[in-house]
């Protein structure tokens, strides 16, 4: 399965969300500790789970808001988001299901799958050396998941196009967009996502890529393995830090969109700022993640609290 951290969004505007930190304090006091324990256990076995959860969280919020619609399985009568090409390499569903089962045993029909994704991602980021931050909860699970709703631009999109998506459809600034791209500090990209940069129509590599990196990737992608992968951050690929920004300033961005962030006049200043200030990136990333997690959420009596994350409750 291919895995790549991408977080390009096409989504409805921000909703006025009635979320609050500690939402389950009375209804399910151990909710957050149950999520944290499961994530820690998985992280101890597989540090790449951070990249997986970041991608799942982004790709969930990218379609209908943060409503866990990405978790729904397809049926004979409906092809769900999960089966779109953009979500082919999303993984970590089994971890979410594991957490949900534990929570159902402790507090039946109380904690939403949408909140589980948000909390699990927050915990994984902290375990990977990223910021520790509180996230408001109280999301409800959506009642729709359709492949036709998935519109997520690819890694060759222009910076200007991505900026428009973030500003007009998400209400997020260009700086917040660059901050969220910091999720590429973890995870990998497969050769099929950047092969175009290794050899253009004239047979020459992309001049915006460091020659040494280009040669390394040409060798990797010429191997007999089926679509091999390379870290998006070539130096600290399992740490949520500001190294990603340093790498793209040195022309070591693997994806075209990553490298263009360091070259585009509207974004390169933010890249330089984060590259030189780890603390500013960490704080900015936490704030941007919290803001992104509030996009078009369902609250109150909207949606439902699924008993199982992969299927809607019986509507009868």
UniProtKB/TrEMBL annotation:
The keyword tRNA processing does not apply. Substrate binds at residue 153. It is an enzyme of class 1 (oxidoreductase). Residues 1-17 form the signal peptide. Ca(2+) 2 binds at residues 185, 233, 236, 241. Ca(2+) 1 binds at residues 60, 63, 65, 67, 69, 81. It holds the Pfam family peroxidase. Heme b binds at residue 184. Its main location: secreted. Removal of H(2)O(2), oxidation of toxic reductants, biosynthesis and degradation of lignin, suberization, auxin catabolism, response to environmental stresses such as wounding, pathogen attack and oxidative stress. These functions might be dependent on each isozyme/isoform in each plant tissue. This is Peroxidase. The lineage of its organism: Eukaryota, Viridiplantae, Streptophyta, Embryophyta, Tracheophyta.
